[in-house]
Task: structure prediction
Amino acid sequence: MKKTVAVIGLGYLGATTAVALSLVGHRVIGIDPDEKKVASLRAGRVPFYEPGLDEALGEALATKELEFVTAHDESSHEVDVFLLCVGTPQSRTGLGADLQYLEASIDGLAPYLRAEAVVVGKSTVPVGTAAYLKQRLSSLVDFAPNFAWNPEFLREGTALKDTLTPDRLVIGTSDSYSEQVLRELYQPLTENGVPLVSVDIPTSELVKVAANSFLATKISFINAMAEIAENVGADAVALAEAIGYDERIGNKFLRTGIGFGGGCLPKDIRAFQARANELGLTESVSFLAQVEDINLRRRTRVVDIAVEELGDLAGRRVTVLGAAFKPETDDIRDSPAMAVAELLWAAGAEITMHDPKAGDNVRRMYPQLAVEDRIADAVAGADLVVVATEWRDYGLADSAELGKLVANKLVIDGRNTLPYRQWQQNGWKVIALGRNLDSALVGV
Ligand SMILES: NC(=O)c1ccc[n+]([C@@H]2O[C@H](COP(=O)([O-])OP(=O)(O)OC[C@H]3O[C@@H](n4cnc5c(N)ncnc54)[C@H](O)[C@@H]3O)[C@@H](O)[C@H]2O)c1
Result:
């Protein structure tokens, strides 16, 4: 059944959600105080890089059922479902989540809320946040508001596909009316076979942080194995392949390298620890501190290798290929690539970066780092090249040609993405995290 939906917050999550819900037949009003963002979306330009989303936005705008505004107006009185998609970054003062944007969203929508409408949180939050926000909203209206949670699992790089055909939908409700409204909202997806798991609200909040904690743990597990492998002449990529065949383990998210990052996993596992601490359950998730420690050690390992190879890094020219926290996005929030670049810079190296999509974000946020738009320009004169994001461009790069441009044919593959035999044949010394490239058994 067609709904009028307000999507509050138009970042990676909100913009994608607004476009997707409009494409499946709902009327959508996207709201974000960021005037530039709204102007860009109105003009059919997604303000960040997400494959396929520009085209989908154009398609959605053409239906005239999608509009973008900077603040609530009279049309918010017609809204059936308010979706809260604002950021929940790490607080400035600790590990916990900063809920100020959610609080502001609640305060902003309250004057427009009809008793029949449902307010649904999609942002990732510590368990208990929905109860707190519902209470806040209740104090602002003169009826009992319908409140639900609907965590989001989209991945940047495949966000639109993940939104239209997610592995599953999770809805957390405490009343059958809200549950019914959410089932109707997602009917276009569920009738195509998308599973919908209906749970209570605290479970829905926990599902998301539990999933992210599991994924972070899986990456840190294989990176811990890489630390061991590096010290005993074993190969962690071969190890991952071998254990990954076991269906109980699976081979996804078992890539060794410089670890996880981005706008979600790191802050979510920190906020989970902070919340567990508040609940007096510190020990239940204390392993997450180790997960993070392993993750951070992989970044410093790159610097250690650089020093082992080059000695003092002061004045040495290092090219970091990749800035985004993963390929197919321009998102550099908590990116391992940026952390490695900053660590090398702090050790005295002169850094030049390249990223197919995130270059402008680096220029804006890291003025101390040089950025080039072409790989060849970035590596010119380099004493060391570090591959920090597994963009296809780097795996496909012509190592013979690049070899002619650098001062020293030394590459650290922080993502295990290079066809290293070819690079070696072209005279490069290749060091790959967690790998034993001398092993005769290791494939390309
Ligand atoms: N990015 C992802 O891949 C992803 C995936 C799943 C879940 N999430 C979760 O979704 C939430 C949003 O993440 P994001 O990456 O889209 O963040 P983001 O920073 O890209 O976007 C947040 C947006 O909210 C806007 N905003 C702030 N205050 C507002 C207000 N009062 N009213 C309306 N808009 C307001 C900001 O201007 C910004 O455009 C977070 O909780 C995140 O953990 C993100």
Observations:
- DSSP finds 18 helices and 14 strands in the chain.
- The mean pLDDT is 97.
- The first strand starts at residue 4 and ends at 8.
